[in-house]
Design a protein that fits this description.
There is one protein chain. It contains five helices and 13 strands. The chain is an alpha/beta fold. Helix 5 links the parallel strand 10 and strand 11. It is globular, with a radius of gyration of 18 Å. Bound molecules: zinc ion. The site of zinc ion has 6 residues, from strand 4.
């Protein structure tokens, strides 16, 4: 049975941001209840709000921007979900990924599920998330050249507790060829072990010259009951 599952969170005024640094304003522009002819709103967001894609330009002045990507670059036909909910320290390292290496062969998108999403309504989601080590990106590039993007169910691959490691990780992903895109703050709890991922679609808001963009990400899946 084929189904589609949303892997993006809805954006609202409570949407968390990296170290609580984001801006989200959603205001009514026109309102039928107030005598206007229609309803509309004005929204103001940092471009790293909610489920979003980080592009090379985020850390590299000459790196690609979101509008440099073709839509086909953002359709992942060989995605995989790696469950890391058993990690005990604050870092995702090569060792954690290597345990799942047979699930990564030939994959183009790796969704790392830490389970940290369950704290999304708490402050620790913005300040205390697991950090992906830079070494992971070098390891993936060398051993799994098909990988084009990584998705995480945390606010960022970086974190307040070790921003230096987080910056190194961003550079390892975004500043080295072939670049690995990052999809942060994903909704991965809707996927279960009974779900077979077929295709993942990441549809960003295509604003020109942006280093990142909020994205609607969804998966076509097969459910085996
Ligand atoms: Zn970001």
């Amino acid at each position: 049975l084929k189904k589609y599952i949303l892997l993006s969170h809805f954006i609202n005024l409570k949407t968390p941001s990296y170290c609580d640094s984001g801006i989200i304003e959603i205001n009514t522009d026109r309102n039928i209840d107030n005598g206007d002819i229609c309803n509309s709103s004005i929204i103001r967001l940092s471009n790293h709000t909610g489920t979003h894609i980080d592009c090379p330009y985020h850390f590299d002045q000459s790196g690609a921007k979101i509008s440099d990507y073709e839509i086909c670059d953002l359709i992942f036909k060989k995605p995989t979900l790696i469950d890391l909910s058993d990690i005990t320290d604050h870092y995702i390292s090569i060792n954690d990924i290597d345990k799942h290496k047979f699930d990564i062969i030939d994959k183009d998108l790796i969704l790392l599920r830490t389970g940290f999403e369950r704290f999304r309504n708490e402050k620790k989601y913005m300040f205390d998330n697991p950090i992906v080590k830079a070494e992971v990106f070098y390891y993936l590039r060398e051993n799994f050249p098909a990988v084009k993007a990584i998705g995480v169910d945390t606010i960022s691959i970086s974190g307040y507790n070790d921003r230096e490691a987080g910056r190194a990780a961003h550079r390892a992903a975004l500043c080295v060829n072939p670049r690995i895109l990052l999809i942060e703050d994903m909704k991965l709890n809707a996927l279960s072990t009974k779900t077979k991922l077929l295709t993942v679609f990441a549809a960003p808001i295509f604003i020109e010259n942006m280093d990142a963009a909020p994205a609607t990400v969804f998966a076509e899946v097969e459910i085996n009951e």
